[in-house]
Design goal:
It is a single chain. By secondary structure, the chain is of the alpha+beta class. It has four domains: 70 residues, no CATH class; 90 residues, PDZ domain (Pdz3 Domain, Roll); 218 residues, 2-enoyl-CoA Hydratase, Chain A, domain 1 (Alpha-Beta Complex); 90 residues, no CATH class. The strands form six sheets. The chain has a six-stranded mixed sheet with strand order 10-11-12-15-16-21, sandwiched between helices. Strands 1, 13, 14, 17 and 18 form a five-stranded antiparallel sheet that branches.
Amino acid sequence: MRTGRHTRPLIILLLIASMAGTVALTGLPSGADRLGEIHKNITLFGLIYREIAQKYVEDVQPDKLMRVGVNAMLRAIDPYTVLIEDEDNEQFQIMTTGRYGGVGMLIQVREGWPTVVEPPYDNTPALRAGIREGDRIIEIDGESTRGKSVSEVASHLRGEIGTSVVLKVSRDGVADPLEFRLVRAEIVVKDVEYAGILEDGIGYIKLSRFSRNAANEVRDAVRRLRNDGMQALVFDLRNNPGGLLDAAVGVTDVFLPRKERIVSTKGRVPEAAQEYYSENDPIIGDLPMVVLVNDLSASASEIVSGALQDNDRAIIVGQQTFGKGLVQSVVGLTRESRLKLTTAKYYLPSGRLIQNDSRWKKRFGEDVVDHITDVIKADSTHMLQDFFTASGRKVPSGKGIVPDVAVPQDTLNDYEVALLRQSMIFNYAVLYANTHAGLKRDFEVSEAIISDFKRFLKEKEFSYKLASEQELDEFEQALKRDGVYEQMLPTLEKMHAQIEESKKNAFDENIDFIKQQLGEEIAAKLWGTSAKIEKSLKYDKELQKAMELIRDQAWQTLLRPASGQG
């Protein structure tokens, strides 16, 4: 990410266009005339803003009025140009530095309480004090946390290194609340979630984000696995939303030979044009490599997977990626706020685009997008070209990264979704782990655990609705409005009875999913993220496919161009 010096006039112009509503968004003059137009609209905007703030029929808060206009303007430009303030600014700092002052745990709100949803980070105050995944934080420094948002709680947990915070925690299986006094420390966020050797000498690395530390962590993980005898590598970028451009370049540099193109950027101003190449010899050598992606792999994940695909260094397995190929530069506005502004697009070594504008159009509407910006029109001729990898394999442009080997993504049924949304498996695993500390790491989900979980669901009065059941409820409301509900009541009762009958066997029909999820969640509560990942591996279809391609040496065939291409 780079801070653009020539973006502020554009920022001001777009703000005026959004707030005033009387200025056209297209056909603006250039050069000196453009500066005059900007000055005129600044004046117009100031007059409108002042009149509303001083004379509108009801009192308005000027700060909130401005934020409404700014947010509306930014939403109209693209989904990724955003104003970074307060908690978001702190999150940005964590991404760019990989560090923050805090206690080292990830929280979400569950059943109205902030809850620790992953094992605390290694070597942090939270982990050393004995805080566990599933603990509910009920007080911070004597103040109740009931109903508070994640950002509110996080702002209390983070702070200056060396200062203390007192937490009161409720833990399932423990009668009385537990109290912890934690001294805040520098927390280093780990990007590599897991690195290990599976079977047949196949290494596996899971990268969860691209912060400032990503390249060094991946480099260290690869070196360690090579020393442990790694003969091939599966690199997992699934659900990785991206991060820093420099981190993406650094991670790719671990795998590519020296002086190979990784990515280039092009934008409206000359400074936006940049090219990035690998600078070091690959640590992995020429070992077989497969990269896993899915529809939540975005931005930096797409740079890495796309560069490895275009340079014929790795086979890509999974589902088509998100398609986020826009470069954001960060413009400092005030001490508390920054603007993350789209200033360029990413182009992969073959010359193709990552950006999938169909997602953009679907979100904002084609007419709105085409009216505000010429980005889509400018890329229309580019999209008609053919693009090829180094060996001559044809690759599509403007669709994110399309895998070389597609593996359909599993979809959850209504019952499975309800178990997860209502945190039934998570909450049971917390309770089970707190009362079975002596469980061995290689445990299997036994019939006793299954029976106990079934009892737990009944005790918690777990219920769910099928999609057809929800639609039937809506149909009943329509019948009531039309005055024919009583006439249809016998038929409706029969339909409800049939639906309830079909739901009776839902637990047994989803037993494989339940066993898998219980195994992973119990392992996570007792031994952390690495244990959860290890439990998930045998159920992982994409990973199993990647390992099959390596064992059968099919990856070599896939990297060759099809006949007639090149």
